[in-house]
Write a structure and sequence with these properties.
The chain has about 140 residues and is α+β, with helices and mostly antiparallel strands. The chain has three helices and seven strands; from the N terminus they run αβαββββαββ. The protein has one domain: Muramoyl-pentapeptide Carboxypeptidase, domain 2 (2-Layer Sandwich). Strands 1, 4, 5, 6 and 7 form a five-stranded antiparallel beta sheet that branches. A two-stranded antiparallel sheet has the order 2-3. A hairpin with a 2-residue loop joins strand 2 and strand 3 (about 75). The two termini are about 25 Å apart. The structure holds zinc ion.
């Protein structure tokens, strides 16, 4: 299981994620963080999904060590990205066309995050918010 803990985020990303959740709440959005840190093994399992006959849809283009979720500092989890899903009436909304995604994305971008759901992102991944380069 990948982590959902804010403490498993990069130290620079933790306060930004907390602020993101606060602003979403203020905007009336109910947001669930589905993933912060993911080990290389978990990443490889996820990468295998939808490839070489493994059932399921392809959900990532990154192998273990290649994803911002796999980042560590001195062997400790320090993910440079988190994934979310908006909840409506307590249920996750996966439909990318739902306005809650756009609103959450706007808030993430406002905080300087690289939101992979933005129009023109090279690999569109609505739930993914990543620390921009420039942070160590
Ligand atoms: Zn992600």
């Amino acid at each position: 299981m990948s982590s959902r803990k804010i403490e498993d985020l990069h130290p620079d990303l933790q306060p930004i994620c907390c602020e993101f959740l606060r602003r979403c709440e203020t905007a009336g959005l109910d947001i669930l963080v589905t993933c912060t840190y993911r080990s290389n093994d978990e990443q490889n399992r996820l990468y295998a999904q939808g490839r070489n006959g493994v059932p399921g849809a392809r959900v990532t283009n990154a192998k273990g060590g290649q994803s911002a979720h796999n980042f560590t500092i001195q062997g400790r989890p320090a993910a440079r990205a988190f994934d979310i899903v908006p909840l409506v009436h307590g249920k996750p909304v996966w439909d990318a066309g739902h306005p809650a995604w756009k609103e959450a994305g706007r808030i993430g971008i406002e905080l300087g995050l690289n939101w992979y759901g933005r129009p023109g992102a090279k690999f569109r991944e609505m739930p993914h918010f990543e620390l921009n380069k420039g942070y160590l």
